């Protein structure tokens, strides 16, 4: 696998996974002031070493990213694991618009109404707010996305008798990566 490079390995594994899964979940870990927190988000786009998700900029994860934009992404696909370290950078308003307006009206209203990560007195209130929503459907300024620009990517493939294969790539510069195989 060493000769393939991390982008090629990710693309190949992603293509295999895509056959049986429409949505691509990843676990995003942020860490501000030594308080790490993980949650699932959807991978919406990837290009080269850039992985994109969309979210609310007032959420806990976005506040963490403001404080420390180094984030971790974890993919677990059957017998494969991909671990990524990268820097999160907010996408342009144009890209946020493109994705927001491509979604169903129901999802747009939920995104407008949700004060993500804030406390809610009752779930019923959230549903009432959605059902009584009469405003215009405009992407809120605090709804956007992040590109995670990977600088380290590790791949693990489970093999029989725990003879797992593990390889770590570190970005040197541009599209140059240094690789090291690791004991599993
Ligand atoms: C399968 C799945 C996919 C999710 N996708 C997203 C997503 O793409 N964006 C998002 O903001 N939250 C998503 N969530 C909700 C997050 O896991 C999380 O609860 C929410 O973003 C608030 O996180 P925070 O308070 O740490 O910011 C998803 C949850 C699940 C279970």
From TrEMBL:
InterPro entries noted in UniProt: Pyridox_Oxase, Pyridox_Oxase_N, Split_barrel_FMN-bd
GO biological process assignments: pyridoxine biosynthetic process
Cofactor note: Binds 1 FMN per subunit.
Annotated organism of origin: Candidatus Xenolissoclinum pacificiensis L6
Pfam annotation, one family: PNPOx_N
Gene Ontology MF terms in the entry: FMN binding; pyridoxamine phosphate oxidase activity
This protein's UniProt keywords: Flavoprotein, FMN, Oxidoreductase, Pyridoxine biosynthesis
Name of the protein this chain belongs to: Pyridoxine/pyridoxamine 5'-phosphate oxidase
Cofactor: FMN
Chain segments annotated as coiled-coil in the UniProt record: none
Superkingdom of source: Bacteria
Domain Pyridoxamine 5'-phosphate oxidase N-terminal: 21-122
Binding site for FMN: 39-44, 54-55, 60-61, 81, 116-117, 166
């Amino acid at each position: 696998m060493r000769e393939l490079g991390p982008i090629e390995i990710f693309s190949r594994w992603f293509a295999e996974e895509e056959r049986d899964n429409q949505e691509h979940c990843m676990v995003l870990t942020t860490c501000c002031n030594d308080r790490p927190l993980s949650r699932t988000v959807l991978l919406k786009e990837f290009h080269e070493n850039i992985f994109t998700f969309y979210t609310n900029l007032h959420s806990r994860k976005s506040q963490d990213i403001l404080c420390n934009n180094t984030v971790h992404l974890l993919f677990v696909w059957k017998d494969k694991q991909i671990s990524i370290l990268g820097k999160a950078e907010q996408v342009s308003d144009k890209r946020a618009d493109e994705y927001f307006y491509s979604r169903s009206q129901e999802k747009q209203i939920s995104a407008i109404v949700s004060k993500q990560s804030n406390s809610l007195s009752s779930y019923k209130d959230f549903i009432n707010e959605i059902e009584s929503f009469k405003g215009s459907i405009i992407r809120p300024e605090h709804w956007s996305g992040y590109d995670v620009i990977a600088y380290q990517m590790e791949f693990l493939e489970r093999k029989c008798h725990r003879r797992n294969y593990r390889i770590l790539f570190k970005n040197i510069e541009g599209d140059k990566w240094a690789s090291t195989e690791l004991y599993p």
